[in-house]
Design brief:
Helices cover 42% and strands 20% of the residues. With 209 residues, it is of the alpha/beta class. It folds into two domains: 30 residues; 173 residues, 3-Layer(aba) Sandwich (Glutaredoxin), CATH 3.40.30.10. The protein starts with a helix and ends in a 5-residue tail after the last helix.
Length: 209
């Protein structure tokens, strides 16, 4: 009897999951995307690894080669509570984006690999909270082995967001952490104007203020 009840429970849960999936599809919500493999050059902290994500319009994006800019500033975030820190960059980047037409800004929520239903729920929860189409297109969520991903980028921990400026080949030419401030923006501006990499310097002091 117990096994029959257990099987019935699984059937009910399966039906509920299918119902949720069906409701999301009928409402025109975006797909779940995938748990992405990570392909790295093995040169930690030098090259952004190849991963597959999806923006909040549901479009699959291959990082870094699928990013739209010749140079792309990527804000890698790990926790929902870090959104306020990401927002400081969204506001502060407007003058630099206007000055450098080849530059794009992306925020990349980086989430542990999870089930299809979980990914579907998270993606559409984030989409529901962001109605602006530009913001949806610049938000690319990835589901990865975070320890492997962080190791590829020389990210020591997830307590803060990490900013990575990538060139057209996906090489990291500047990096920082935390909220935007005048010093970080000035450093970034100098790199954008000069085209020279300051990766070695900022790796030694990524939280420079």
């Amino acid at each position: 009897m117990q096994s029959i009840i257990s099987r019935l429970g699984y059937v009910v849960l399966g039906a509920l999951a299918l119902g949720v999936l069906g409701a999301l599809v009928l409402r025109g919500c975006i797909p779940a995307g995938i748990n992405s493999p990570i392909e790295s050059t093995g040169m930690s902290g030098v090259q952004f690894p190849d991963v597959v994500g999806a923006d909040l319009e549901g479009t699959e994006v291959l990082l870094p080669t699928g990013l739209a800019g010749q140079r792309n500033l990527v804000a890698v975030a790990f926790e929902r509570e870090q959104q306020a820190v990401v927002d400081t960059w969204i506001t502060s980047m407007e003058p630099l984006l206007a000055q450098h037409p080849e530059l794009r800004f992306y925020e990349v929520p980086t989430i542990y690999e999870s089930s299809t239903l979980s990914r579907l729920w998270i993606n559409n929860g984030m989409r529901a909270g962001i109605t602006d189409e530009v913001a949806r297109r610049r938000t690319v969520t990835i589901y990865v082995d975070r320890e492997q991903f962080n190791a590829a980028l020389s990210i020591p921990d997830t307590r803060d967001i990490h900013l990575l400026l990538l060139n057209a080949e996906g090489e990291i030419i500047w990096r920082s952490t935390g909220a935007a401030n005048d010093q970080k923006l000035a450093d970034l501006s100098r790199v954008l104007v000069s085209g020279q990499s300051t990766t070695d310097l900022t790796r030694l002091n990524p939280g420079r203020t």
